Amino acid sequence: MTIGVDDDESAFPRLEDGKGLEESWLRICARLKGEVGEVEYRTWLTKIALGPIDGDEITLLLPTRFLRDWVRSQYGDRLSELWNQEIPSIRRVELQVARAGDPAPIPLENVPSASTATPVQEEVTPVARTAPEVRSDLVTALDSRFTFDTFVVGKPNEFAYACARRVAEKPSSVGFNPLFLYGGVGLGKTHLMHAIGAELIQSGNVSVAYMSAEKFMYRFIAAIRSQSTIEFKEQLRSVDVLMIDDLQFLIGKDNTQEEFFHTFNALVDAGRQIVVSADKSPSDLSGLEDRLRTRLGCGMVADIHATTFELRISILESKAAASGVVVPGKVLEFLAHKITSNVRELEGALNRLIAHANLFGRPVTLEATQEVLHDILKAHDRRVTIEEIQKKVAEHWNIRLTDMSSARRARNVARPRQVAMYLAKQLTSRSLPEIGRKFGNRDHTTVMHAVNRVTELMGLDAAFAEDVELLRRMLES
Ligand SMILES: Nc1ncnc2c1ncn2[C@@H]1O[C@H](COP(=O)(O)OP(=O)(O)OP(=O)(O)O)[C@@H](O)[C@H]1O
């Protein structure tokens, strides 16, 4: 594919096949967002704008020198790799500080999630960075940070960890082949796979191929196009350990599934080890062929569960210690309490705190944490429902839940109802008419009156204000 400059009025050149660079950029943004997590993406990558393309070089623009240097050091290689996957003729990514009038970055809300983004173009041949210790040229570089030593073990992941260690020590043991690791997003599946790979490579002359299912598919397609499927199959079937990450990507990709199935059988029959990860168990991966699901479930299936508070604390402690920045225990507890979604997001939040501390030379305090992570914390605020509010308020003042929507106007019922409306306005994003509907189809002006009245009373009556605050804190925690 060649790249030419369109003479239309678009701010960016277009590819000859009519596909805009913006489309490629959007896909790359979606990929990056999926890879680094929304927190990290929002912190560092939303500020990048697409600049011009010149020969084999594409320019990306950043608003400040600091951001340019940071993005270059942390994400430079990955950006080049992704651009090269999108448009193979692009070999270099130049990062520059933007000037007035340069294009703006893509707003975060316009970047689709990786799973919904249109896949990169098919004729992609991913660039494999080969680790020197490894024989096979199929290996994508393993991330040296992802080792067993840096993996924090707790109840939710101890079984998966033990299985991974076992495979790293004795690949192809009966009962452990294939090893199928599954669990939600950002809980450590990739980390464990890389740790297995690193351990095996260190232990001796073992060839390990690790790649995402997506990469597997692109390589397969590239091999078909270049009529080199035999070499591709031979290469794959010559490794001692094959690891495929995020297998759910193959759902609906029937030909690639078929190829994977044959590779899988050939390797297992030859006594080689397979390690696979996915977001669901083999039996729940509907959309994969039955025979493949059956084979995937034949070895060891290990689930990584959602993190517990204790595990989140241990992970934060370990990562904070490794960073060399002192993060007080109460800040770690606060983060572990607030960011419960997955380890990637938790890590992203901590990294941001650490980067701020390093940048401004200020100690990490709870106040600073709330300020620096304001947007993330807001996004993770627990969603309280109006029903929960009604229940808590009714319990607190010992009235019947049905009185929240009844027509009774006695003060001992009407006042708690007003408080519940007030809290619904404060803690949910529902509109006044929506709140009114939940309180026995009351009019929005009634809700407005309740909100004003409660605000007024809180200013006049300290005990009442304390009650309302207490309820708010209980509902928010
Ligand atoms: N138990 C853990 N100890 C230390 N770090 C962890 C742990 N679990 C996850 N992480 C870190 O969290 C981040 C996300 O983990 P990883 O990429 O392995 O998740 P994943 O389960 O493969 O997610 P996805 O489904 O998105 O592929 C990585 O930086 C990883 O090092």
TrEMBL record:
<feature type="region of interest" description="Domain IV, binds dsDNA">
    <location>
        <begin position="358"/>
        <end position="477"/>
    </location>
</feature>
<keyword id="KW-0067">ATP-binding</keyword>
<dbReference type="InterPro" id="IPR013159">
    <property type="entry name" value="DnaA_C"/>
</dbReference>
<dbReference type="GO" id="GO:0003688">
    <property type="term" value="F:DNA replication origin binding"/>
</dbReference>
<dbReference type="Pfam" id="PF00308">
    <property type="entry name" value="Bac_DnaA"/>
</dbReference>
<comment type="function">
    <text>Plays an essential role in the initiation and regulation of chromosomal replication. ATP-DnaA binds to the origin of replication (oriC) to initiate formation of the DNA replication initiation complex once per cell cycle. Binds the DnaA box (a 9 base pair repeat at the origin) and separates the double-stranded (ds)DNA. Forms a right-handed helical filament on oriC DNA; dsDNA binds to the exterior of the filament while single-stranded (ss)DNA is stabiized in the filament's interior.</text>
</comment>
<dbReference type="InterPro" id="IPR020591">
    <property type="entry name" value="Chromosome_initiator_DnaA-like"/>
</dbReference>
<dbReference type="GO" id="GO:0006275">
    <property type="term" value="P:regulation of DNA replication"/>
</dbReference>
<dbReference type="GO" id="GO:0005524">
    <property type="term" value="F:ATP binding"/>
</dbReference>
<dbReference type="InterPro" id="IPR001957">
    <property type="entry name" value="Chromosome_initiator_DnaA"/>
</dbReference>
<dbReference type="InterPro" id="IPR024633">
    <property type="entry name" value="DnaA_N_dom"/>
</dbReference>
<dbReference type="GO" id="GO:0006270">
    <property type="term" value="P:DNA replication initiation"/>
</dbReference>
<comment type="subunit">
    <text>Oligomerizes as a right-handed, spiral filament on DNA at oriC.</text>
</comment>
<keyword id="KW-0547">Nucleotide-binding</keyword>
<dbReference type="GO" id="GO:0008289">
    <property type="term" value="F:lipid binding"/>
</dbReference>
<feature type="binding site">
    <location>
        <position position="189"/>
    </location>
    <ligand>
        <name>ATP</name>
    </ligand>
</feature>
<dbReference type="InterPro" id="IPR003593">
    <property type="entry name" value="AAA+_ATPase"/>
</dbReference>
<dbReference type="Pfam" id="PF08299">
    <property type="entry name" value="Bac_DnaA_C"/>
</dbReference>
<feature type="region of interest" description="Domain III, AAA+ region">
    <location>
        <begin position="141"/>
        <end position="357"/>
    </location>
</feature>
<dbReference type="Pfam" id="PF11638">
    <property type="entry name" value="DnaA_N"/>
</dbReference>
<dbReference type="GO" id="GO:0005737">
    <property type="term" value="C:cytoplasm"/>
</dbReference>
<dbReference type="InterPro" id="IPR038454">
    <property type="entry name" value="DnaA_N_sf"/>
</dbReference>
<dbReference type="InterPro" id="IPR018312">
    <property type="entry name" value="Chromosome_initiator_DnaA_CS"/>
</dbReference>
<protein>
    <recommendedName>
        <fullName>Chromosomal replication initiator protein DnaA</fullName>
    </recommendedName>
</protein>
<dbReference type="GO" id="GO:0005886">
    <property type="term" value="C:plasma membrane"/>
</dbReference>
<feature type="binding site">
    <location>
        <position position="190"/>
    </location>
    <ligand>
        <name>ATP</name>
    </ligand>
</feature>
<feature type="region of interest" description="Domain I, interacts with DnaA modulators">
    <location>
        <begin position="1"/>
        <end position="123"/>
    </location>
</feature>
<keyword id="KW-0446">Lipid-binding</keyword>
<feature type="domain" description="Chromosomal replication initiator DnaA C-terminal">
    <location>
        <begin position="385"/>
        <end position="454"/>
    </location>
</feature>
<keyword id="KW-0235">DNA replication</keyword>
<keyword id="KW-0963">Cytoplasm</keyword>
<feature type="binding site">
    <location>
        <position position="186"/>
    </location>
    <ligand>
        <name>ATP</name>
    </ligand>
</feature>
<dbReference type="InterPro" id="IPR013317">
    <property type="entry name" value="DnaA_dom"/>
</dbReference>
<comment type="similarity">
    <text>Belongs to the DnaA family.</text>
</comment>
<keyword id="KW-0238">DNA-binding</keyword>
<feature type="domain" description="AAA+ ATPase">
    <location>
        <begin position="175"/>
        <end position="378"/>
    </location>
</feature>
<dbReference type="InterPro" id="IPR027417">
    <property type="entry name" value="P-loop_NTPase"/>
</dbReference>
<feature type="binding site">
    <location>
        <position position="188"/>
    </location>
    <ligand>
        <name>ATP</name>
    </ligand>
</feature>
<dbReference type="InterPro" id="IPR010921">
    <property type="entry name" value="Trp_repressor/repl_initiator"/>
</dbReference>
